[in-house]
Give the backbone structure.
Amino acid sequence: MDFISTRGNNDKLTASQAIIKGISNDGGLYAPSYFPNITNKLKNFIDMTYSEIAFELLKEFLTDFKVDEIKNCIQNSYDEKFGYKNAVNIRKVNDSYFLELYHGHTLAFKDMALTIMPHLLKTSIEKIGINNEVVILTATSGDTGKAALEGFKDVENTKIIVFFPEDGVSAIQKLQMKTQKGKNTHVVGIRGNFDDAQSAVKDIFSDEKFSEELLENGYVLSSANSINIGRLLPQVVYYFYSYINLVSTGEINMYDKVNFVVPTGNFGNILAGYYAKKMGLPINKLICASNDNNVLYDFFNTGKYDKNRILKLTTSPSMDILISSNLERLLFEISDRNTATVKGLMNNLNSQGYYEIDSNMKRKLDSFHAEYSNEADVNSTIKNVFESFNYLVDTHTAVAYNCYKNYVQKTSDNTKTIIVSTASPYKFCEDVLKSLEHDTSNLDDFEIADKLQDLSKVKIPDSILRLKEDEIIHKNISDKDKLKIEIKKFLKV
Ligand SMILES: *Cc1c(COP(=O)(O)O)cnc(C)c1O
């Protein structure tokens, strides 16, 4: 297995090289050189734990890792840090299945990959024998930042710097990041939105002069965003695990097809589902659910990607994104890996904020269906799901469930469907409580959480309770064009 750039500079990297590098020098993302087909192995997965399935899948991609290295990485990740033995929980609600991916430390699905990625990176560094310290640069719309900070906290030979939109995350998300412990962590709020943060970080990665300057001081840059293949591959696992779980509980028969509905921002999560399908998992449709920032809805329905619009701040901030980076990896596949085409489209996106795919590529989008939910739909979905089924969902999961309802209404498809649930309702407790038509105006975040607990009888996660006592450590705020200065300050370069 090699990893190759979507923009075709003939890089052929091993998994560990690609994980360390993060993004290719030509600005492209690394993709696996082929998709291993595991259709015939699916039946062996029955009765396997989450960790065992993770091993079976990761070993297909991490071919330069030793068996024990992969097993160690997995063992150190999917352990008691998660509230469930198998890291995730699946809840049947009204004939749908909610795949709860938010039982890790930071209460969002980002933990699924960011608990293991630091171990993959550390192992990669040891294998290759680099003497430099790896500096993880991460732009976050809220959840990646905290999950990456927790994952990399005090990991030897690494430092982590997180940039988040100061006014674009929930109160709990902000508190989670600003109280981050660990001597190798640095958190900076920026005046700007997530796209600003992500573009600035991507520019830094392609600034060779800056990289050289850091290298002279013993630092190499890498990324914990889902542009890093080490982040994406572990996300393939829960698509397989949830499918197998439905087979072993008798909800479906082996090789029946299922749909997945994925609340989408940077297109990393749903891309992992597409990779799972390419590997032979019986998936009918991947339903791409957007909020009011519905660039992807337009793209799937028209073939035109147009980011020339105002970014709206919604109650699902982790999806407030207009440039979905991982779509580049999908373009790579649907163009039959034509790197010149991908490069051309990405150049258009950079220069004009726009591109359009041809009819051949458009036909290959048939694994997907796209919908979006407006803010009123999100509110009423949270309320209806709670009142009808006594089940509390967060704002992002509500986007997904409402999109699923729209999909069924349009298509009458009755394929069994898994709703990918990406965050705990407590992470966005103010908007969740408001949706249940409770006044939150005189309450602080912890009082809101208490009230939500009284209503729902779902226990407040310990990691929220601990925030109450934690000291605010990170107070930096920066302009979006001054991130290099922030980096140098922290690294003392
Ligand atoms: C990151 C995130 C998303 C979007 O996932 P992508 O991989 O960026 O598409 C959705 N919901 C929550 C809660 C998230 O943290």
